[in-house]
Structure formats: structure tokens, C-alpha cells
Amino acid sequence: MAGFISFVYSKERIMSEALSKITTDAENGMKKAINHLEIELTKIRAGKASPSILEGINVDYYGTPTPISQVANVAVLDTRTISVQPWEKNMLALIERAIMGANIGITPQNDGVQIRLFMPPLTEERRRELVKKASAEGEQSKIAIRNIRRDHIEQVKKQQKEGASEDICKGTEDTIQGLTDKYISAVEKHLEAKEKEIMTV
């Protein structure tokens, strides 16, 4: 009898651990969705100079695609100007070409020593376009978070079918729903802040 009780207990413990892991996995997935959103929102320029506009642009450094920040000193000179000063002079033209090819909407000015990027002032129409773009990114993040909720709640239901306690499963589902609400709210906050940044002239 004692053996049966300990078998039941250990089965319950295994199921409880499985449910705990489902919750952790769901939260980790939602955090990743927020991190991705943060990266995408930094790429949406609000007319202010920021080194992040060069993120993702690689330059051919002796045959290896290398981020600009690893072959040059990237500095913000003022709210509208970025300076890119290569550590090796022969990189100037390559960096200029890479920036032109990335199509970021800014024409690099090469003075033979450094490259300057002048941020164009944003028109009202362009600002609205950027807000729309930010909203679309936010929508993608919300979809990702809701998909994570759906997938993990399905896993909880599967555990219940396999004999996990109905109460514990219900509690786990509530926890996952709580996480969903928390991270959807985080998306909203990010979008509000980004919209304010874009629309501030």
C-alpha cells in the first residue's frame, strides 16, 4: 500500500513539475516576443540620431561581413547627426557603400576622413507612417503572445487528460492567462512610448 501511495505521490509530483515547466516556457516565450518588439521599435527612427540605425548593416571587412560598429567609431554629434569614423581609412568607401545599399533613407556624406549621416526632419505624414509601422510591429507581438498562450494551455489540457489534478491545471491556465495580460500590456506601453517619441516634434 505504501508503495502505491508513493507511486501516486511521485506521479503527482512529476505532473506538477511538468505544469510548472509549461508556465516557465510560456513566460520565456512571451519575454522573447517583447525583446523582439523592443529591437524592432529601435529600428523605427523618430527623426533623432541614434547609432541603432546602423544595426544590422554589415560591411565587407577582408572578406567577412562585419557590423559597422566593429570597424568604426560610431558617435552621435547632435540630435540630427551621426559620425562614422573608420579605424582604417581604406574602410571609408566600403562603409559608405554598405550604408547606401541598406536603403535607410539617409545619404551618407563622406569627407575623406569620416562619414556623416544627417537625419532628415520628419514630416507629419512620415510621422503617421512610422506610428502605423510601430503599431504593426506591436500587433505581431500580440499575435505571438496569444499563440504562446494557446499552445501552452493546450499542453496543460493534455496534462489534465493524463491525470493531473483539475484544480492545479485550472490554476496553471489562470497563471498563463495572467502572463498573457501582463505581456500584452507591456506591448501597449512600448507602443504608447514609441508613438509619443515619433509625434514629438
Question: How would you sum up this structure, described in words?
Answer:
By secondary structure, this protein is α+β, with helices and mostly antiparallel strands. Helices cover 62% and strands 13% of the residues. It has four helices and six strands. The protein starts with a helix and ends with a helix. 24% of the residues are buried.
Distance between the termini: 76 Å
Q: SSE order, as H and E? A: HEEEEHEEHH
- Counted beta strands: 6
Content-based structural category: alpha+beta
The outline comes out as elongated
Task: Summarize the helices and strands and which ones pair or pack.
Elements lengths: L1 H42 L14 E4 L2 E4 L4 E7 L2 E6 L5 H11 L6 E2 L4 E4 L5 H38 L4 H34 L2
Antiparallel strand pairs: 1-2, 3-4, 4-6, 5-6
Key phrases:
6 strands; Topoisomerase I, Chain A, domain 4; 201 residues; alpha+beta; 4-stranded antiparallel sheet; elongated; 4 helices; 62% helix; two-stranded antiparallel sheet; disordered N terminus; single chain; Gyrase A, domain 2
In short:
The chain is of the alpha+beta class and 201 residues long.
